[in-house]
Every structure is written in structure tokens, then in C-alpha cells.
Fold this protein.
Amino acid sequence: QNAQDADSRIKAVDDLLINFADTEFKSFALMMATDAARQKGDHEKLIIYGERALEADPKSYAVMLMMASSIAQRTREHDLDREEKLGRAEKLANDAGEILKTAPKMNPQLTDEQWAQVKGDFTAQQHEALGLVALGRKKYEDAANQFKAAHEISGEPAHLVRQAQALNLGGKHDEAIAAVE
């Protein structure tokens, strides 16, 4: 956890799992490696570590959301398995949302308000992932609605930019301009 950068964090996780394959921290360590791969923009490693993390903890909604977004972002229009990839991303995002509804606090020291904020951040990530899936399917209105929902929860300006992109692609140019203004 104290590693200085993403590469160091991945190496530390690998070393931990080599030396202590059955550690009780396995799912947490693999989630950290998944996130480090995400930070690096290494989709292949993100998927590898994400799959391993889900083997260790099938209810790891944080990993599901990282994988869903990455898969949706990297699926291209002419991929032969495009719908399979988008379907997987959608399922991961929806499964994460269902688990999150009843998830216990990640840290018992969090106040109820802090936990509500954390859950809100994850819910915004779910909407973002579903928006990316809708973009991949060229369902621009659905994508715009998902990005709008993500922004309403998180307040992140990037979601408005994505909403505007979806509106623009859907031919709603005036609404796109309004979203970014």
C-alpha cells in the first residue's frame, strides 16, 4: 500500500502473493494491483489482476467497475466480439451496482455520511461504465443519460464532457453545447 508508484505496487502485490499465496489480504492486494494497472493504462494487466481479484472475492464491486469501464472504453466498433465485450462490461457494472446496494462499510471507522459518499462515488462509476457501454452500442441518448446521472452524483466535470460527446454524436448539438457550458 505504501509503494511509490503503480509499477512498485504491482511488484509488491506479486511478491506478496508469491510468498503468501493464501494470505487473508489476497483480494485486497489484487484489487490494488488492478487499480495500479488502471492507473498505468495497462488494460491487459487490469483484466488479468481483475479476474484474479474476482476469483478471490466474487463480490468486489470496485474491481468489477474498473473492469467494466476498461472493457467498454477499449471495445471498438469493428471488433468481432464487440457485443460480447460490451455485454460483459454491462453485466459487471450492473452486478457491482446490485452488490453495492447492500455492501457493508469498507472500513468500520467510516461515518454513515462518509460511507454514503463512498457508495455515491461507486454508483457514479457504475453510471459512467454503463454510459461507455451505451456509447459503444451507439445508443447516444442512453449514454448521455448515464453520464448525466454520474455527474449528478459525483459532480465531476468529466461526466458532463462525456454527456456532451454522446449528445453531439446523437445529433443533439444544442444540448451538447448546453451541457459543456
